[in-house]
Amino acid sequence: MRRTFLGMPAFPEAAARAVADPVLRANLRHATHTIRDKRARAVAELDDWALLREAGRRIKDRTLRHLDTHLLRLEEAVTAAGGTVHWAEDAAEANRIVTGLVWATGEREVVKVKSMATQEIGLNEALEAEGIAAYETDLAELIVQLGEDRPSHILVPAIHRNRGEIRDVFRDRMADWGRPAPDDLTDAPADLAEAARLHLREKFLRAKVGVSGANFMVAETGTLVVVESEGNGRMCLTLPETLISVVGIEKVVPTWRDLEVFLQTLPRSSTAERMNPYTSMWTGTTDADGPGAFHLVLLDNGRTAALADEVGRQALRCIRCSACLNVCPVYERAGGHAYGSVYPGPIGAILTPQLRGTASEADASLPYASSLCGACYEVCPVAIDIPEVLVHLRGRVAGRGGRGHRLERAAVRAATWLLDHPGALATGERAASAARRVVPSRPPGSGAWTGGRELPEVPQRPFRDWWRENRA
Ligand code: SF4
User: Fold this and answer.
1) Of all atoms in ligand 1, which is nearest to the CA of residue 319?
2) Where is the Lactate utilization protein B C-terminal domain (predicted)?
3) What is the rounded CA–CA span in Å between residue 236 and residue 239?
4) What is the structure's pLDDT at 271?
5) Ligand 1 in reach of 379 Cβ (< 6 A)
6) Is 38 a member of any domain?
7) 292 shares a domain with 407
8) Is the CB of 381 under 6 A from ligand 1?
9) Are residues 66 and 177 in the same domain?
């Protein structure tokens, strides 16, 4: 069983461990810089990128405002097309539904399309606990699964691994899961891909149940959409007799016209492609073509709570392109595991604390896992103002109290009073100038924040005095 994020330490501790690993840093730097440069070139090809981005933002906001209506319309359309819709309030309910559906087929193994929603709810672990084997078929997910690892990137879950490490994982572990890797396997990309292809092929041909997520759901026709690059998704979505899709409720778009915008912005933002190699769409069931039974599990798991937050709800616009991860200086150094969630990087720092809450130290640390440089906002194809949400969530964490935050709040209260009393502020400034030789150059304390910062030099005379004299 692959490792989960349960029991992970808070971000500062996990990040400190990660930055001490030079191989990990080199892997991440190489991969993120390659993808981000390609993305920039792909986006620059479009003259109307800014308009597409704005259209995406508006479509998502408009849809979220009337989410209940669109979901009911979707349910109606899926049902009319021969599918069955299930509603899951949380991870436990979703896992119960999927496990029950697989048991009902009599099968004990499923093939999976890469899906963030099923990782979020820990579906593989829930299935395994009930004696059902779940086989990941996306290449990077396969590497993570065989290596009993955790995913560290939304799009490239094994981004922390280099080719040599992947070859070792294939050589050591493939035989435990099915067809072994060739003895003379090299670390050439074509050889690794061929080994994975042969290993997976027998699973595709044998599987009777497929499990997927979806990138989008079109309410007007009840159509689900998966975009991918390898073709494994197409196999899982068409070959099995039963298809079960677990999808977050925010993935609905009202019409095909709305979908058009995202099918332009998502590939360029994620894989820097003009269009995805494979875009699979299905609507319910069709006689003698594809799965004969289709189940859609609509997942809430904290999304309704996020929707109720006026600032935080913009995180639900996310189309999981991962562009924000690839430009983030914190992610580049700390890597994905440090975020303690299947959603790493800037989007994880605002999504996880909203989906899971901030009760645990690990989740409460996430809004602070950022320098607030704003690079994530610049690249986001749906214009999520991630820095704004980070600051908002920091306010929520600080508002809860606790020793560190009591001090912070006392300091903010003192600063508020001082700025409200200009006379006292001027006296304080003059006193600081008079005592400038004894003012320390570093803030007091030896914490991680204070230890790494210097205080600004106190000027010989306060600016307001200089201004009074020189204004004329
Ligand atoms: S927050 Fe924006 S940039 Fe980041 S994954 Fe989501 S859509 Fe992409």
Assistant:
1) 7
2) 395-470
3) 6
4) 93
5) yes
6) yes
7) no
8) yes
9) yes
User: Considering only CA atoms, which residue is closest to atom 3 of ligand 1?
Assistant: 380
Tokens of 155: 């799009």
Residue 1 has pLDDT above 60, yes or no: no
Q: Which of 303, 335, 360 is the last residue in one of the domains? A: 303
Residue 55 alpha carbon to ligand 1 centre in Å: 15
**Residue closest by Cα to atom 2 of ligand 1:** 380
- What residue type is assigned to position 348 of the chain? G
Same-domain pairing of 149 and 292? yes
What's the rounded Cα separation, in Å, for the pair 20 and 15?
A: 9
- The reply to whether 328 falls in a domain is no
Are residues 192 and 163 in contact, defined by beta-carbon separation less than 8 angstroms?
yes
Q: Does the structure show a pLDDT above 70 at 3?
A: no
What pLDDT sits at residue 91?
98
> What is the pLDDT, as a whole number, of residue 403?
61
Pairing of strands 209-212, 109-112: parallel
CA–CA distance, 285 with 152 (Å, rounded to integer): 34
DSSP for 227-259?
EESSSHHHHHHHSSSEEEEEEEGGGEES-HHHH
β-bridge partners, 282: 224
DSSP letter assigned to residue 311: T
pTM for the full model?
0.88
**In the chain, what's the furthest Cα-to-Cα distance?**
89
Q: Are residues 95 and 232 in the same domain?
A: yes
- Give the list of residues 6+ apart from residue 63 with CB closer than 8 angstroms, or none: 70, 252, 253, 254, 258
Find the mean pLDDT for residues 400-410: 72
Residue 189 C-alpha to ligand 1 middle, in angstroms? 28
Average of pLDDT values for 397-418?
Answer: 81
CA distance 397 to 365: 9
Picking from 303, 333, 357, the residue at the C-terminal end of a domain is 303
For ligand 1, whether the C-beta of 320 sits within 6 Å is yes
Mapped onto helix, strand or coil, the DSSP state of residue 112 is strand
Q: Answer whether residue 358 is part of any domain.
A: no
Q: Please tell me whether residues 422 and 297 are part of one structural domain.
A: no
Quick one: 415 and 266 in the same domain? no
In a domain, residue 176? The reply is: yes
Domain CATH code at residue 148:
3.40.50.10420
Q: What is the pLDDT of residues 302-348, one digit of tens each?
A: 999 999 999 999 999 999 999 999 999 999 999 999 999 999 999 99
Q: Is 344 in the pocket of ligand 1 (CB under 6 A)?
A: no
Instruction: Determine the residue of 380, 389, 390 to mutate for testing ligand 1's pocket, defined as the one with the most ligand atoms within 8 A of the Cβ atom.
Output: 380
Domain count for the chain: 2
- Pick from 278, 273, 257, 162: nearest CA to 215: 278
Residues 97 and 230 in one domain: yes
